[in-house]
Amino acid sequence: MGINHDAVESLKADPTVAAIHRSLGFYYGNAAQDATMDAFYAPFVRPGDLVFDIGSHVGDRIGSFRRLGARVVAVEPQPLCIRAIKEIYAGDEDVILVEAVCGASEGTAQFYVNSENPTVSTASTEFVKAADGAQGWQDQVWDEQIEVPSLTLDDLVKSYGIPAFTKIDVEGFESSVLAGLSQIVPALSFEFTTIERSVALRCLDQVAALGFTAFNLSMGESMRMEFGEWRSRDEMAAHIRALPHEANAGDVYCLPSPAPWPGPAAA
């Protein structure tokens, strides 16, 4: 099982989901891009592994994790994205969709929808404030608010087991997600943006407190690590502080201890 390509094409042509057409077009249908993504994640994800995909959006990482043979618990609160994931992975018993926000506590959360650009919808009011008037973010508007269920990473671990890899991409809500994790896991990544470096630094403190000691990062959708060797918490913090505003976003990768990286680092 895996990606239902007919469902992808049907969604791309469906005007009722026009807001996610750009994401569907970018993430699905490019075999070379899929191969690059799979090669990037392969050191973290092996056949039979359990993976948590926190903030699944339209499910492109689900596709990669499934091609690598993993079982995936995907957490996503947005109705349009939930619909896409359900249709694209219909019938795949190794994809479990949890329709919720992952945060610091169980209950409910307010979720701020950017109806023109759902990829930056968020549960973080601070993220919305940080984007207001920031260079490159001037046209972004969060014009809808919905109440959604909330659960924690600890809740997911209790329900499904310890994941081999946890990917967190939740538009400024990453620190809240990590606040709901009380034990170290084999590997995780969290997204950061240059409009909210303080969130990234807080996340580094949180994962370091859990026991992570080795860090690397990949900028944007490059699917390349910036460093050939894993860095310390302090080195990663200094690098994030020094990034230009235009760098915009990336993902920090965290391990309990340094490990050889088989893929290429950025030139």
What are the SSEs and their pairings?
Elements: H1 5-12, H2 21-27, H3 31-41, E1 50-54, H4 60-67, E2 71-75, H5 79-88, E3 95-98, E4 101-102, E5 107-113, H6 125-131, E6 144-151, H7 153-160, E7 165-168, H8 174-179, E8 188-193, H9 197-210, E9 214-219, H10 233-242, E10 249-255
Parallel strand pairs: 1-2, 1-7, 2-3, 4-6, 7-8
Antiparallel strand pairs: 5-6, 8-10, 9-10
Explain this structure.
Helix 4 links the parallel strand 1 (50-54) and strand 2. The chain has helices spanning 5-12, 21-27, 31-41, 60-67, 79-88, 125-131, 153-160, 174-179, 197-210, 233-242, and strands spanning 50-54, 71-75, 95-98, 101-102, 107-113, 144-151, 165-168, 188-193, 214-219, 249-255. The chain has 267 residues and is an alpha/beta fold. Helix 3 packs across helix 4 (60-67) and helix 9 (197-210) packs antiparallel against helix 10 (233-242). It has a single domain (5-255), classed as 3-Layer(aba) Sandwich (Rossmann fold). It contains ten helices and ten strands. The radius of gyration is 17 Å and the shape is globular. The chain has a seven-stranded mixed β-sheet with strand order 3-2-1-7-8-10-9, with helices on both faces. Strands 4-6-5 form a three-stranded mixed β-sheet. The protein is 33% helix and 20% strand.
List keywords for this structure.
single chain; alpha/beta; Rossmann fold; 3-stranded mixed β-sheet
